[in-house]
Amino acid sequence: MLFRQLFDQESSTYTYLIADVQTKAAVLVDPVLEKTERDIQLIQELGLTLRYCLETHIHADHITGTGKLRQLTGCLGIVPENAPASCADQQMRDGEIVQLDSIAIKAIATPGHTDSHLAYLINKERLLTGDSLLIRGCGRTDFQGGNPGTLFDVVTQKLFSLPDETLVYPGHDYQGFTVSTIGEERKYNPRFSGHNREGFIQLMNGLNLLNPQKMMAAVPANERCGNAVLV
């Protein structure tokens, strides 16, 4: 399996390129519009064919590159079930699997950061967590239908039930971390370690974070698969 972690400095977003090394079929997870040229160049250099773009959720801090990539490559755009993006080619529900030749990508419903959010488990060994679980942190829960109690439940009951050695690849990082493990996050993540459900809800409701700078443009654009900025 080919696996690449790509970074957007402006939004601190990770995009993941995954491909079957034999058939060259590829998928991008959470592409960023401003990085489309980079992503296309890498795909061409590696001789890959982009079949899918997967979104973990409707992003508020950047505009997805899926719309542009669909135009350029003919790939399909996939969003979580019930995400407000009717322009998507397909929705995925909890437990559903996208088979990319030798690679199995299983959706795990992880609402709480937003009301429709998926993590993706790749070949049972690498977990793309989006904003549900960050390295030593988690996504905020104060808009887009977020719910701190729901996020606590899905992280502690679903993600932390995976084997300790499962690799954790988040949707963002602001401290320079690139990868962790489920065992490491269960033990050291300060949002969850030492907190019960009520303590976590109190913690998240007291963060008082500023809204993302691009939120007013990013959310409506992403509900149109990134195409609103092209009008």
TrEMBL record:
One Pfam family name from the record? Lactamase_B
Q: Which domain of life is it from?
A: Bacteria
Q: Where are the transmembrane segments?
A: none
Q: Where is the Metallo-beta-lactamase domain?
A: 12-172
UniProt cross-references to SMART domains, sorted A to Z? Lactamase_B
Checking Gene3D superfamilies in the record gives: Ribonuclease Z/Hydroxyacylglutathione hydrolase-like
Record key words, sorted: Metal-binding
Annotated protein name in UniProt: MBL fold metallo-hydrolase
